[in-house]
Description:
By secondary structure, the protein is α/β, with parallel strands linked by helices. The chain has 10 helices and 25 strands.
Amino acid sequence: MAEPTRVVILGGGFGGTAVARRLERLVGRDASVEITLVDRENFALFTPLLPEVPSGAVEPKHVVSPLRALLRRTIVRHAEVRSIDFAKRTVLVSHCPRCRIAVLPWDHLVLALGSVPNFFGLPNVAAHALTMKNLADASALHAHVVDKFEHADMEEDPAVRRELLTFIVVGGGFAGVETAGELNDFVRGAGPFYPRLGRDDVRVVLVHLGSRILPEVSEPLSAYALTKLRSRGVDVRLATRIDEYTGTLARLSSGDEIPSRTLVWTAGIVANPVLGALGVPTTSAGKVEVTDTLEVKGCRGVWALGDCAVVVDRATGRPYPPTAQHAVRQGRRVADNIVATIRGRASTPFAHRPLGILAGLGRHSAVAEILGFRFSGFFAWWLWRTVYLLKLPGLERKVRVALDWTLDLFFPRDIVYLRPLHLSQGSGPVGGEVPAHEPDPRGSGPR
Length: 447
């Protein structure tokens, strides 16, 4: 019996999952094609709803879908990539550093490894900043914010209280604006539960290097978003960058210094550093260079897409933006081209014109551009939630998120602080109190 054609997909984000799902539909029960997907998580994250996790608007598990439930025909490997041998056409993976190395041979390899935060070498930022790239980050931020309120409630020094309750978000793109809007809703709503804390003690600061937030949308919608955030108490600093963050003090390019124990970094991404060791053609930003059919240049049978690849729009000559809607469509095109190659047909170039863009601004407000039409305010917010609810994979997840949103209309957001497990089992006087030093908040999430 002939060996099957083996397709190995590295990465279970929007792009990688789209490749697998499309391949499943195209090849059906054809046993001559074997599909394997490798990811360090065993779920696919619906990133558009990620900013609603730290605010408590949705439960963390409701914005993820188990890969094994989502992909019924694909072999799912919950593992990390250790190395890739292009000469032998194999990938070495393992579940953890101490586990046995598994060898995955491939005939077609899909690189969908995504991106990591880019801190641009700023002093101490990488060491002290929180990020918003995955579910662990979002869950950790929720725990971190609640912990700061509990700490501030015990603090007598007004200056220290304000430092604890000042939350800085860096980056005025979609991730930064949506995180700042949701975070602002959460911290303002938490006030009544902490009567000892003054309303003026709480502060949310959004720092953006550009001249306007949400540069991806039209100027009128960008201006609306700025006005809405400021009207809700967000301190937006435009044309400003972070020069240094010590963990307790942020120094800005304007010369201002903001005491704060929370800095959330959403100001830049860079391709997964794993790609730099592969020997494939990459740009100065570390992204893989691909042809218009999404095949890696000079590497037959190797494909790349999403955040880790630079895919040039032939109509404009500029790269497509690293958004979910582009990654999904690139994934489908990669699957189409893999099947075409297997069956001896020509590959098709990738081209896509987005239908629109949406950005939430917090409770009951958003901006949207759909087919050239602009919307803002409540209707845009309803549209934002409706579109993403429909795109969320699986009926079960749709129902769970819809219930979360319904409860959010009638009840305050959850302020329960789930102490990290390794800190909750100590021998302190009351069920294992934390030591005098503050824990690393990033330890709260499931890594």
